[in-house]
């Protein structure tokens, strides 16, 4: 008997985010293993079956090869047109949180552009893995255990179950077929009083049953679930489990169950169900949702100003239609940053666009709200990027911010290789002032790196991207979230220990080293080695580093947080009085009176010469979202996001 494959975790996303979480093994060869029928090792000597050359590391039984629905990426010849062939739209991506390759299962390592992401199905893979990923973008291949069509109705104490037909069941026998029957029961039922089953249909993966069962419910049955299972009958040994799903009697009472449902694993099936998509019904539902949404919009237009943010009138409301999106400035895990011109004006902004579906699926609803609250801080430091406004549509969140024409420090580091100590000193002084402000307002930044340090038109720095920030963290409070960019993360974060403001000062020490050396102090050939270096090794200094520079970097890179410079209650005084800053007038620096060493060369107001060409040459089109998913999304999660900054004009 062929063992039934493990089922994919039920998630809204079509592709697993972290292979290791699902397979339990980071060396598991392919995420498709969890999506299609398969198991065991690839047979030696197997070369071509049904046009599949097995050059993509996909493992499958030989007898299961007929069920492959995609063309092997290693085969250049044409194959059967029935095979799915939908190419992925790969985009080079910089990941700000630890992300695993959905092909090989290993961590996407590096500082920037660690891998590529499909704009359509959100698949994340290494650059060298993308050629091995099958072209099945957007295909629904999640019914690995098959599905069942049924009708269930509860009237009074009578429960009626119509088992109609099953499809795409798992081949359990050596002949590539199964002998399936459907078992029905109220779960839990130790006595077996409610157990019923259909007839067995032999040698069939798409059996038709058309059988009806009735249950007379007892008062003690009301808290139970209706459990539907499919089993493979075996003449000589125990019957084999193939799949299951279940319904609570409460949900059946609210509305009869009618349609196709996916079979899940035994553990999953006891607790929930997943309906299959029906294109015709989906379109009808979408039309109903659109009508309801139109009614909501009409109602909103009649609402008074009390329904709007406290500092926003109807006249001030910002909408996506107010902007012409010109170029792509950058990309991240949740969306894009676009250069935008406000219609009817000469105003130019950088607009950060985040997808709500990605935020919901990764359970990161607090990130955009935290970023908004940090950007909206009153009396903000001149070294933090300025927020103009926030608004939202049904499927996206928009941050309208000042456009820093000088690009980021990562871009300029690539041009110069490394900076002289005097140049690096200018930038780290202004970064320190930005961190002082954040910490004094109980904000832990957690994502200090070259990519997030922008230059304005005068050459002064602007700290950006507060999506990973944590608010309400005073100098005596801590958090434990594993968060940040690998090469800049403090040892206590990597060890899953509590950490506070001192974690930002570790990243600051890494930043000083990188600006002066042109490389990271603990970088290694892979992620695991980098982690090990951060926790165990000491930084090795190039000969051109001054004694003061080596001393302050060593103080910031102390392995124990309590021994780190800036860890005490008087962090500002401890840091500003260090000999490394002996020639710095901190009051002048705070007032932007220090002369920048590098003034960006700007030819016109839309000049993008300081931005990566790989981004600016891309189209500004926003990737379509799953309409069904968006219709079911709870918009209450984003209440309070819209905002207009009353200080923006006076700041800028």
UniProtKB/TrEMBL annotation:
Binding of Ca(2+), residues: 172-173, 179, 232-234, 237-238, 240
Annotated residues for binding of a 1,2-diacyl-sn-glycero-3-phospho-(1D-myo-inositol-4,5-bisphosphate): 181, 231
Record carries keyword Metal-binding: yes
Major enzyme class: transferase
Sites where the protein binds ATP: 352
CDD domains per UniProt: C2_PKC_alpha_gamma, STKc_PKC
Keywords assigned: ATP-binding, Calcium, Kinase, Metal-binding, Nucleotide-binding, Phosphoprotein, Repeat, Serine/threonine-protein kinase, Transferase, Zinc, Zinc-finger
Domain named AGC-kinase C-terminal: residues: 582-652
Single annotated GO MF: zinc ion binding
A Pfam family of this chain: Pkinase_C
Cofactor: Ca(2+)
Gene3D superfamilies for this protein: 3.30.60.20, C2 domain (2.60.40.150), Phosphorylase Kinase, domain 1 (3.30.200.20), Transferase(Phosphotransferase) domain 1 (1.10.510.10)
Location of the Protein kinase domain: 323-581
Cofactor, free-text remark: Binds 3 Ca(2+) ions per subunit. The ions are bound to the C2 domain.
Superkingdom per UniProt: Eukaryota
Domain Phorbol-ester/DAG-type as annotated: residue spans: 87-137
Renumbered residue ranges of the record's region Disordered: 289-309
SMART domains assigned to the protein according to its UniProt record, in alphabetical order: C1 (SM00109), C2 (SM00239), S_TK_X (SM00133), S_TKc (SM00220)
Domain C2: start-end pairs: 140-261
InterPro entries: AGC-kinase_C, C1-like_sf, C2_dom, C2_domain_sf, DAG/PE-bd, Kinase-like_dom_sf, PKC_DAG/PE, Pkinase_C
Enzyme active site: 447 (proton acceptor)
E.C. numbers: 2.7.11.13
PANTHER family: RIBOSOMAL PROTEIN S6 KINASE (PTHR24351)
Protein family: Belongs to the protein kinase superfamily. AGC Ser/Thr protein kinase family. PKC subfamily.
Protein name: Protein kinase C
Record organism: Glossina austeni
